[in-house]
Amino acid sequence: MARAIELASRGTGATSPNPVVGCVLTDASGTVVGEGWHERAGGPHAEVNALRAAGPAARGATAYVTLEPCNHTGRTGPCAQALIEAGVTRVVYAVSDPNPQASGGAATLRAAGITTEAGLLAKQAEEGNAAWLTSVRLGRPYVTWKYAATLDGRSAAADGTSRWITSAESRADVHRLRAEADAVLVGGGTLRQDDPHLAVRGVEGATQPLRIALDTHATILPTARILDDAAPTLIVVGEDADTRHLPGVELLRLPLRGGRIGVHDLLAQLYARGVRSLFLEGGPTLAGAFLEGGAVDRVIGYLAPALLGAGPAALADAGIKNISGAVRLDITEAVRIGPDLRITAVPVPATETATATVPATATKEH
User: Fold this and answer.
1) How far apart are CA 316 and CA 362, in angstroms?
2) Which of 177, 301, 344, 363 lies 20 to 30 angstroms, CA to CA, from 142?
């Protein structure tokens, strides 16, 4: 199963809106006879790739799969049926499929006389498939907030300059994370101040994420770098924004709530468009709005060994009034990236009950 989880990770960034899945087939002696993973959306699933690799050796084999084999026909056939037809006699899977359209594979396998077991290395498999699992369970994209700051928590200097707080190594690492996401989001302030490009660079074979700018009043200039053809782009504006200066630009119009676009209104629309993972690269105000809305699932902070003493903080108002309301985090990783420290953490517990809006002045990319 550990090998299946490793194989599943190879599909990261290429399978959305489908999950990443890995599969290993072993014969009666425990020898591996076939391996496979879900390589891209619309392509064969992990089980099918592993069965093809095994050929006749699949008969009588045990299949180790990171996710319960699907039980429906979409762009590909049901994997549960493929395992049955191949003569597999035992299936061990890590995580049950929460998608009601695809679940039930284990029951189908058992009805065919195949032994099934669930839960092996479930925690590790869940971590590798967190974006997809979260999106299915909550009906919105999995949100990662990325920020860069000095060791004293400043995202820019007092004069507003922020290039570059972190090292070239950290910036390259950010491109890798972008390549794993379906979409990258910044606010209007970052759009105006930094003119970000947001496309992935330096990652071989990367699928370019959807670049999204939240620009309530459509102040973006037609010459903005985000509007080039390096990657697809979506500009999110208020429902009454004047966009006559943006012919040919894909727009998403949303109603304003108190002059702002609702976080969950935006997430619902992105989910409907097939976005399952969102990489939040906006500034402290945008991050604060998402955190207040209970819509941050993972935090990745790049801390540079530098001190500024003044300037904007990495996180603005998130509606927290006292220490008891602090969003507590579980640090899942802390590693050196060049001279910097990259810390990954998840909120404990996450909440989906709060409501929030995104201010039109949300700022700062990196």
Assistant:
1) 10
2) 363
d(C-alpha 46, C-alpha 219), whole Å: 45
SS3 state at 317: coil
Question: How does pLDDT run across 284-339, given as a tens digit for each residue?
Answer: 999 999 999 999 999 999 999 999 999 999 999 888 899 988 999 999 999 999 99
The per-residue pLDDT for range 227-238, each reduced to its tens digit, is 999 999 999 999
Of 320, 277, 321, nearest to 300 by C-alpha is 277
According to DSSP, residue 294 is labeled T
Q: Which residues contact 299 (CB under 8 A, 6 or more apart)?
A: 144, 145, 147, 329, 343, 344, 345, 346, 347
Residue 10 DSSP code:
G
151: nearest Cα among 309, 365, 348: 309
Q: Which residues fall within 8 angstroms of residue 74, CB to CB, at 6 or more apart?
A: 102
Contact 310, 286 (CB under 8 A): no
Q: In Å, what is the CA distance from 23 to each residue of 46, 76, 86, 156, 334?
A: 6, 16, 14, 45, 29
CA angle 76, 47, 270 (to 5 degrees): 55
Neighbours of 339 (CB within 10 A): 13
How many angstroms separate the CA atoms of 191 and 171, rounded?
Answer: 18
What region does 172 belong to: left with phi over 0, alpha with psi -120 to 50, or beta?
A: alpha
Residues catalogued as catalytic = 47
Distance CA 301, CA 107 (A): 42
- 195: its two tokens: 């003119």
For the stretch 141-156, what's the b/e string if a residue is b when 16 or more beta carbons lie within 10 angstroms of its beta carbon?
A: bbbbbbbbbbeebbbb
Distance CA 243, CA 66 (A): 46
Q: Whole-structure pTM over 0.85, yes or no?
A: yes
Beta bridge partner(s), residue 116: 91
DSSP per position, 93-117:
EEE----TTT--HHHHHHHTT-EEE
E strands in 1-140:
22-26, 32-37, 62-67, 90-95, 115-118
For the chain, give percent helix, strand, coil, nearest 5.
25, 25, 50
Structure tokens at 114: 């195949």
